[in-house]
Structure formats: structure tokens, C-alpha cells
């Protein structure tokens, strides 16, 4: 049933800000009116409702407890009958998306200099229910009964009551139409907390459940941001047939404390593995490097961010160790580095504030860069065959880089630039700062090198975008370095797509979006599904990738897989 005219007038006057959301989310948040549909809250009514679809999402894969509510609204759109797409557009609908709620609570692991599994688990158990409760309260205030919409007296109560007294008095409170939850990969016990809660909500509301692949959600995050950016303009991009960006195929660089993946993302569930780490993840490497490089007074979680802030602080000088330890942590944070690039951009110019010269060739990429202290950090996987450096293996390795940093902090450096067995008594602040810069440069250039190898080996690749997502993608220096390397190597036409910093780390909003994309493609999950500790993205992997996991339903029917 169509909305009444007075409803439309009321909804236009019912715009309230959501103060708990970050500013970039507040920009995408507005309020809508109720449909006057008085049918019961059954599944079929939800699927047909004109106001669209509401997704509640839960993320508990590691130490972040996060809940989000995302709404997809449907709008009738003008169809240009002369367009070649018009013949296939039978419904004449466009979609606009908005964030209703998004909050995250991170477990306090400060005492352990890392993530303690039991502390993270207890944090999920203590905080998840409260976050869900706050989310539902926000949904109710977002979708108030119709009589609440006219309290400001800018819509006529008399007109509303005369138009439809039953709609006015008995408008129901809305509940989500879909529940999305991280199923894996991650810590099994932590995943189980979120998964069990999500199952209970799906049963209570009689709505579908989607168990989301965590890394797939990271890869799709720029598409979420594009959908949100399109919403204030009433989905102009979709109306013109442009669709979501980035389009498949695109390259995904997924970098975090637990993963380092280079993926050829060819479709929603088709992500071919190009390279992965053979030892530790890049985020783990940088976190542990920060713990040995930074003075104790400047070390705080997240450690990777602290490492970057320390590395590009502009006023560190060679002082005595006692003086350096008196430096104020808050000053390091407030004065760190050049300003951040714009959020959710496809292409931006490199900053001039880093004094960084990208390698112009593959040979330059493999060269050591000696420092004034005699040591240099060698690029990973840069073994030599005689005089010719020959490593072109499509993999990553960060354990050797971390080990070398730990040794040059602990031991004196010999004439050849290698650590000796003689303990070091002192490392001044300038050397520590140089070390912080160099470990990031070498690690990030190692990432970029595999992007270059992929592009050079695939001149026929149909994509033009590199998505960089995960916690490490929040690094400003990483963004600068990637753009600089691509430009220097002749790939200025390749776009870089980074999510906003708030969406680089684990969050439920990306889970909501991935769940919505899977639901739109006809996929839901059986209530019997369990958490998955390790779960590949690649359909050719031993486990069958995303769809290889048990419990998928496609269009209401069990999805069969040969990888069971």
C-alpha cells in the first residue's frame, strides 16, 4: 500500500541526528516514516514491504564486539525506456542505504600487550547483549509510531487522524528483517558468542540468518561506502545503471593482525587467492615491532597506529634515554604525520610530507638502503642467485623482517651491518624513529611488490581498482606509499579504494553489508551452522571457499557442495 500524503509530509520534517555515530556515519543517516501496512510481522510481509529491508549485524570474531543496523530503502525510479537496460528493469526500483546504529566495544587487553583470548571472550559475553538492546532502541526511535511523527506540530494531527485513524493509533514497532553475523574465520569461542545470539534473534523474529565470511566483508566494504554515498542523492548511480563500485573484478589487499591476502575478486563469492603470508601477518609484524622499538611511555594500543605516529612525529631529536622517556604520549598522537587522505576515495595524490622515494623498477625494489647507524632492513624474499636477485614468488613473509628488527634493538651492529652477540646498552630516539619508518616502508613495499607482479603478469586483467582493507589499511603512510609506487611504475590508471579509517578495523557494519549482498544474491544460512576458525575465500581451496562451508541455503534450498 502506498504511503499517505500526510505521511510523506511528516517524514520530511522528522530528521534527527544520531549523536553516538561518528561524523561520517551521521552524514549518511536520516529518518523515514512507517508504511501503513498493518499485516502481522511474518517473513513474507517483510520481503514485500515498500520501506525496504532492515539488517541487524553482529561481529565477534576477535576482540571487538560490534553491532550495527543498516537499512535498505526502496524507491520507485524513473525508467528511461530508450535505455538498453530498461527492458530488464521490470520493477523500476532504486535502493538507498543508511546507517541506523553502529557501535563497537574493544576488549581491554592493555595488561597483556596483545589479545588475550579469555579477556576477549569475556568482553563479548558482557557487552553483546547491551549493544543489541541499544541497537533495537535506536531502531524504535528511528521508526516511531506515526503519532510520534506529528508531535512537532509541523504536520497536522487532525489531518493525520482524519486520513487514517487506525494507521495513526496502531502503527507497529519495527523489528529487523534479516540477521547477519560473522561465522568465520576467527576465534571459535568468540565467534560462537555472536553466532548463538544471532540465531536466537533470527528465531525470535522469524527472519533469515546469514553467516558472513569476515574477510569477504572486508573486501566488500568500499561497495558499502559507495552505497551510502549514493543514498542522499536517491541512488543516482543505480538510477543511471552505473551500479555499485568498485565493480567486479577488482584486486583485494586484505591486511590485518591475522591475515595478509592478495585476492583477485571476480565476483561476490569468487575470490581467487593470488598470494598470502607464509609465516606471520603484516599486522602482527608491525604490532610486535612497535613493542620493541617504541619507548614504554609512547606505547599504547593499537600498536600499529602508535608505530606510525612515532615514526612520523616531527619533533623527535637525539636526546638522552632519560629525556626521551619523559616525552608525553598525547603530544606524539596529536602531532603525528601528514593529514589523512580523504575517506573512501578511488584516487588521490601522494602526500609530500613523508619524504619517500618509491622504487622505480623491480631491481630498485630489492635494494638495501643503509642507514647512518650501519644497519639496513632487507626486503623479504629477496634471496640472491649469484649477483642476480631472483625472488618473484607470489607469497608474503614478515617473520624475518621482525626478527632482524628485534636483533638490532638488542645487539650491537657489526661492520657488515649485521647484529653481533654484544648487547646494546642504549638506542637513541632518532635511531628508533628511523627504525619505525624503515620497518613500515619495507613491509608496505613488500605488499606493493606483489601487486606489481600481478599487474605485470596479467596485462589482460579486466579490473582497474585495488581495494585495500583490514586494520592495517588505516595507515596513512600505507595509502601514500601504494599510490606513489603505482604512479612510479606506470599504473596511474589503477584506482586505489580504501574504506574510511573507522571501517578498516573489524566492525559490524561491513558484516551487515556483506550479509545484505549475499541475501540479495539468494543466499541465507541454516540455523545449524557453527563457527569456522579457518575459512578460505578461494572456491578452488580445499574447503571450497565461501560456498564450501556447510549450511548455505540458496533461495530457500540447501546448497550442495563437493567440499563437505
Automatic annotation (TrEMBL):
Task performed by this protein: Required for the formation of a threonylcarbamoyl group on adenosine at position 37 (t(6)A37) in mitochondrial tRNAs that read codons beginning with adenine. Probably involved in the transfer of the threonylcarbamoyl moiety of threonylcarbamoyl-AMP (TC-AMP) to the N6 group of A37. Involved in mitochondrial genome maintenance.
Organism: Teratosphaeria destructans
Lineage: Eukaryota, Fungi, Dikarya, Ascomycota, Pezizomycotina
Reaction(s) this enzyme catalyzes, per UniProt: L-threonylcarbamoyladenylate + adenosine(37) in tRNA = N(6)-L-threonylcarbamoyladenosine(37) in tRNA + AMP + H(+)
Record has Transferase as a keyword: yes
Pfam families found in the cross-reference section: TsaD
Protein name, entry field: tRNA N6-adenosine threonylcarbamoyltransferase, mitochondrial
Location of region: Disordered: 334-360
Family membership: Belongs to the KAE1 / TsaD family.
GO MF term list: metal ion binding; tRNA N(6)-L-threonylcarbamoyladenine synthase activity
GO biological process, one term: mitochondrial tRNA threonylcarbamoyladenosine modification
Keywords, alphabetical: Acyltransferase, Metal-binding, Mitochondrion, Transferase, tRNA processing
Cofactor(s) in the UniProt record: a divalent metal cation
Keyword Ribonucleoprotein: no
Major site of localization recorded for this protein: mitochondrion
